[in-house]
Write a structure and sequence with these properties.
Helices cover about 55% and strands about 5% of the residues. It has about 325 residues and is mostly helical. It has 2 domains: about 5-185 and about 295-325, HUPs (Rossmann fold, 3-Layer(aba) Sandwich); about 200-290, Orthogonal Bundle (Tyrosyl-Transfer RNA Synthetase). Helix 1 links the parallel strand 1 (about 5-10) and strand 2 (about 35-40). Bound molecules: adenosine monophosphate (AMP) and tryptophan. Belongs to the class-I aminoacyl-tRNA synthetase family.
Amino acid sequence: MKALCFSGIQPTNVIHIGNYIGALKQWSDLQHRYPCYFCVVDLHAVTVTQDPKLLRENILNTAATYLAVGIDPKRSRLFIQSEVKEHAELGWLLGTIVKIAELQRMTQFKDKSKKRGESVGVGLFTYPALMAADILLYDTTVVPVGEDQMQHVELTRTIARRFNQQFGDTFVVPESLIQTTGARIMGLDDPTEKMSKSARSPMNYIALTDDDDTVRKKVMRAVTDSGDDVSYDPKKKPAISNLLTIYHHMTGTHLKDTEKKFSGKGYGDFKKALAEAVIEHIAPVRRKIAEYRKDPQQLMKLLDEGRDAACEAAEKKMNLVRDRMGLGRR
Ligand code: AMP
Ligand code: TRP
């Protein structure tokens, strides 16, 4: 069986260093090992209210970000989810396979609906069926994601197995690929909650598009723990441990070496070094995003090519699915 990698990011608000460390950074490494599809999942974005004009902007920003972090269009396909109609179609069909009780167990739904009260739409609830469709359409074997998506990939596996059992072998059962460190980057203003696009304050995250001074300001104002020892201990020192994890992913330096380097120096010196390390890493990404957005021709062409390739694969799979389920006519 051919190995294939699929992943996606919602084109909402900003893309932050949590998304980068937890997902994007491994994507650009993986493309050297597997054929990859990287999708801008706009149908997922509309599970909460979006401003249509802003959504279109964010879709192109997200696609530009994929390229700016090193997704190579010669190796990987990038495309926009809503331009391949089969995602919505298979999402519907898988909604008939998944159980209500299974969806009720999804922590992301519980968190998001709690924050939004009664006003959440049904789409937010059935979202894991759509995510399963994204993955299963392409015979995906590996799904590189941050820790928060592990439960959705597990459910995708359950759905695939159940479908195969009921209708005959149709889907490959995929596996998630989660990093050992950095799979859950915490908020700079609150190290007990994950860094999030939908955070109330921009002080929660560093966006890949933040300018140098903004990065400095956000890092220097990041919450720290009591004491002034730069040491890694996620239980007792969640804030500084989170910053150390970010430093590790920005510089490649081992935690132990960083602890040694800053021993006796206090939080201030470490934060200054962290801010400069983040800037060094993300400033080129920010500049590349701006370049791709300024000259959209290339981006449009790549998205057309990605869409065409994805459509071809997705159409084939959907023909098989309709056949297996006995839908329509032969
Ligand atoms: P989203 O922002 O929900 O579209 O997430 C896009 C990708 O980034 C998914 O693979 C998430 O698991 C990952 N991700 C989101 N937030 C974080 C975080 N705070 N730390 C690590 N990975 C994250
Ligand atoms: N649900 C994912 C998130 O919020 C995004 C996503 C949608 C995804 N479809 C996917 C990730 C398929 C991996 C594979 O982050």
